[in-house]
Amino acid sequence: MSDAPIVPLRVVLLASATSAHTRRWADDLAALGHEVTVCSWHEPGLGFDGWRAASAPGGACRPLRVLRAMHWLRRELHRARPDVIHVHSLGVHGALSLLLPAHPAVPVVITPWGSELRAAGRHSGRALVARLALRRAARVVPTSREVAELVASRYRVLSSRITVLSWGVPDALLDAGNDADPRLTRAKYGIPAGATVALSVRSTSEVYRTHEILAAFTRAARVRPDLFLVLVAGHQPAHAAARRAQQEYLALLRARARDLAGRVAVIDQPLGQAEMFSLMRASDAAISVPQADQRSSSVLEAAAAGCRLLLADIAPYRELVAEGLLANLLPDPLVGSLADALSHAGPLNAKDRLSNRKLISQAERGSLKVAELERLYRDVARAGAV
Fold it and tell me: What DSSP character marks residue 288?
């Protein structure tokens, strides 16, 4: 007897449609034939291929907007008839999930972001949203074991309802080979051909400690005339206030970078996955030093690109090292430890680059992660139908 055909799933993501992570997962799921709708609190923008995006009605005072958003969300769910709802982050979209019925007929999956949980630890309102949203979820899907333990201990989520699932690295990046000439990439962004390049692979922000990265580079640059630093602004936030804060932060960085004329590049325009990966391949070292994180796709991509990894000494990065990833872990105080690492940093040798790339290709391949996510969706949808 032949196997029955696999029926496509109908998936609703409660997530920012402007987020690169959201777009990647929606693209991957749609490419497998699933029907994907992204319901976003923010304006979704344009340029989607294979999936639908819808945004909550704007304007009006906050209570009225929330009421309108509830009716809008329920209309969208009636239209999409999803098998599963996946909430990305415990910020505004975690709050949006609370507008669902108290006992939704459709199972809810939540991916908590490390930054949102950190914020919840300092703010009672955010903590309440996180607690309510997590308790209503059929499955919680963090990307690191540390966050899984936090969700279980702080929010009393049963371990049986938690599945650790990394976002991995897209196959297209892993299989692209070495087609892009690093010299051309350096020339494109004004990076000297012979420089030793350190790239901050996360968006410029307080969360990713960009000011401290620049301060550490300033120290190291005094003894390493070959060093060059690249900072990437990252995506533009959806909220006007967040955009203003980002521009103010960038302005301060540029003012400090002027003292290092010819040694620092700040890339303002948003970069696509392929562009960012080419920039990683044109760099010698990749820096990611937040005080808290999960299993970062940017870090995994930098490892696959062959960069020396300079990482904060935090639990999710220690997990990666324990699994065999080659990286330098930098303790606090960060400015001193990062300056010392930069003072001695050079490119990885061929053996170590190959080791990291092989590990990422085998354990963090994006298609394998999407297949795991697909199985998880089918499991929770099947359990919800019982």
Answer: E
Whether 386 has a pLDDT exceeding 60, the answer reads: no
Which residue's structure tokens are 């005094």? Answer: 222
Beta bridge partner(s), residue 194? none
Asked if 13 contacts 35 with a C-beta cutoff of 8 angstroms, the reply is: no
Q: In this structure, what token pair is assigned to residue 251? A: 């302005």
Can you say whether the dihedral through the CA atoms of 162, 165, 167, 171 is positive or negative?
negative
Q: Is 243 helix (H, G, I), strand (E, B) or coil?
A: helix
Single-letter code of the amino acid located at 321: V
Q: In b/e form, how buried is each residue of 349-360, taking b as 16+ CB within 10 angstroms?
A: eeeebebbbebb
| Residue pLDDT, tens place only, 158-216 | 999 999 999 999 999 999 765 678 999 999 999 999 999 999 999 999 989 999 999 99
End-to-end alpha-carbon separation of the chain, Å?
26
Condensed to tens digits (0 to 9), the pLDDT of residues 208-252 reads: 999 999 999 999 999 999 999 999 998 777 677 777 888 888 888
| CA atoms within a 13 Å half-sphere pointing along the CA-CB vector of 266 | 22
Do 347 and 357 meet the contact criterion of CB atoms below 8 Å apart?
Answer: no
CA distance 344 to 330: 13
**Distance, CA of 353 to CA of 286 (rounded, Å):** 13
Any idea which residue has 């769910």 for tokens?
A: 77
What is the reported pLDDT for 1?
A: 44
pTM flag (> 0.90):
yes
The residue among 217, 188, 183 whose CA lies nearest residue 200 is 217
* Closest residue by Cα to residue 36 from 71, 9, 15, 72: 9
Query: What is the predicted pLDDT for the residue at 384?
Result: 73
CA dist 95 → 36, 82, 128, 372 (Å): 21, 19, 10, 26
List C-alpha distances in Å: 324 to 13, 63, 151, 296: 33, 50, 26, 16
